[in-house]
Specification:
InterPro entries: F-box-like_dom_sf, F-box_AtFBL13-like, F-box_dom, FBD, FBL13/AtMIF1-like, LRR_dom_sf, LRR_FXL15/At3g58940/PEG3-like
Strand content: 25-35%
Shape: globular
Number of helices: 14
Radius of gyration: 28 Å
Protein name: F-box domain-containing protein
Mean pLDDT: 80
Helix content: 25-40%
Low-confidence stretches: 6-11, 114-120
Structural class: alpha/beta
């Protein structure tokens, strides 16, 4: 009887596999496209019917993973094991390209040494093999190319394989763990490139200008860079130009170096400017009259506009992680420029600087949403000073309907003292005008629960309360137990694995 059951199960499985095998190649390839290239290749053992179909998937994702050998203390054996793993990785990748027979590639992703924080040793042979893989993808008319290099001594080939002379690339992302010199071929020719994201690069000479000039259709540019210092020059301030008639979205992340950034664009609609680490105060001169969205995490004294920002709809102004000295005069000047926005988010240092200059605040006649942004600074913040400024902002925003907490700075104060702070920051007269309140992040501190409860209990006009991300059920249950002043208020909780939308 047992053998009959096994036979019945086997027959059922065979029939199930036969049904899959009967599907057209196009459907099988579409199914396999949802898997990583490595996993898709493993499915070739399931049936001879689709043994090599994985090689026809238009998207290729090569990710090299290093295993940890905790039980082995022999360094030589571990290095040999890593080398053999790398050989197997290169062999599989080469075989896939051979089976594809130069068929067009839509997306190609190469991720090397980014996992586990391990060091991948790449010798000359491996460097050449990886270069050949990238070159093969470019020869296959790839449209989207992503290369992520973690803790590895492999260097992305900028001039040898034709990355910056590709006629088919539409989307390009390059991430190098160690800073990569942006030494590009001359000329750069990327006639169809629309999205470019490069991180951890060093600006060399006029490479950036040639890159922008050689990408006439570029719409989105995200650049994380450092400025190289020429020790032979008396003036080490480097001038970086971002001038393009096509770019609509620009993200600038400055890691280090003394430089002046000059931005000129009539078509730019979105700008994020972030200073992550500099010895001195970098300067940014911005001429973008049609800007709609602006966010900068940098000292306000170093951000200069050569025109009015009449088209601006949303703005974020924060100092960032660096402890620059800012004055109320700097802040007021910038708030005057953005007073026509509908959505405004301010950092803690900005609010703190405004504490004694509340009478100078402009009127935000169009403002409907106000947000509080943590600067992420390691410097201690006087919570009383920056929370004390909020009522004055409420008074200067007659149309304000929504308030957003991007992050509530972890306070060293006792819960009772913190509760007194938000009673000062959000008097009942201010809360009554709010229709929406959102907590982007919720750390489950007791004062956060009290703040949510305070808003629900006193928000007579409140229509929607959104709290946190990936909340535990116990947290959701406690929030839902709070008494509400407004019966129409909808509580939206992002519970772990699912989102609850409850009208109570």
């Amino acid at each position: 009887m047992t053998s009959h059951r096994h036979k019945a199960v086997k027959t059922t499985l065979d029939n199930y596999l036969d049904r899959i095998s009967a599907l057209p190649d196009e459907i099988l390839i579409h199914i396999l496209s949802f898997l990583s290239t490595k996993i898709a290749a493993r499915t070739s053992v399931l049936s001879t019917r689709w043994r090599y179909l994985f090689a026809s998937i238009p998207d290729i994702d090569f990710e090299f993973e290093l295993k940890h050998y905790h039980y082995c203390k022999d360094k030589t054996l571990i290095e040999n094991a890593h080398s053999w793993s790398f050989y197997a990785f290169i062999f599989l990748a080469s075989k896939i390209f051979m089976l594809r027979n130069a068929a067009p590639i839509r997306k190609f992703k190469l991720s090397l040494g980014a996992l586990w924080g391990s060091l991948v040793s790449v010798d000359e042979w491996f460097q050449s093999a990886l270069d050949i893989l990238i070159s093969a993808a470019l020869s296959s008319k790839v449209q989207e190319l992503k290369i992520f290099i973690g803790n590895s001594n492999y260097t992305i080939p900028l001039t040898t394989v034709g990355i910056f002379t590709s006629k088919t690339l539409v989307h390009l992302e390059l991430h190098q763990h160690e800073h990569l010199d942006l030494d590009l071929p001359n000329p750069v020719f990327l006639p169809n490139l629309k999205v470019l994201n490069m991180q951890d690069v060093n600006i060399v000479d006029d490479s950036l200008q040639r890159l922008i000039k050689g990408s006439p259709l570029l719409e989105e540019l995200c650049l994380g860079f450092s400025c190289l210092v020429d020790e032979d020059k008396d003036n080490n301030v480097q001038v970086i130009h971002f001038s393009s008639p096509s770019i609509k979205k620009l993200i600038i992340q400055l890691w280090r170096g003394d430089c002046t950034i000059v931005l000129e664009s009539n078509n730019l609609e979105s700008l994020r400017y972030i200073v992550l680490g500099c010895d001195s105060e970098p300067q940014a001169i911005i001429n973008a009259p049609n800007l709609k969205s602006l966010a900068y995490y940098a000292p306000p004294v170093g951000v200069n506009f050569s025109q009015n920002l009449n088209s601006l709809v949303e703005a974020t102004i924060a100092v960032g992680r660096l402890n620059y000295q800012i004055t109320s005069q700097n802040v007021i000047e910038h708030l005057n420029r953005v007073q026509g926005v509908k959505s405004l988010c301010l950092g803690e240092h900005i609010l703190e600087a405004l504490c004694n200059s509340q009478d100078l605040l402009p009127t935000f006649k169009n403002l409907t949403s106000l947000g509080l942004q943590s600067d992420g600074s390691f410097e201690d913040i006087d919570h009383f000073l920056y929370w004390k400024t909020l009522p004055a902002l409420f008074e200067k925003a007659p149309k304000l309907e929504a308030f957003v907490f991007h992050l509530i700075q972890d306070s060293a104060s006792e819960d009772m003292e913190f509760e007194c702070l938000f009673l000062v920051a959000f008097p009942i007269c201010c809360i009554k005008q709010l229709k929406e309140i959102e907590f982007k992040s919720f750390e489950k501190n007791e004062y956060e629960f009290k703040l949510v409860e305070y808003f629900l209990r006193n928000g007579t006009a409140l229509k929607k309360m959104t709290v946190g991300k990936h909340l535990m059920p116990s947290v959701c249950k406690r929030i839902l137990s709070f008494e509400k002043c407004s019966e129409d208020c909808q509580i939206v909780l992002d519970e772990a694995k699912k989102v609850l939308q409850l009208d109570l």
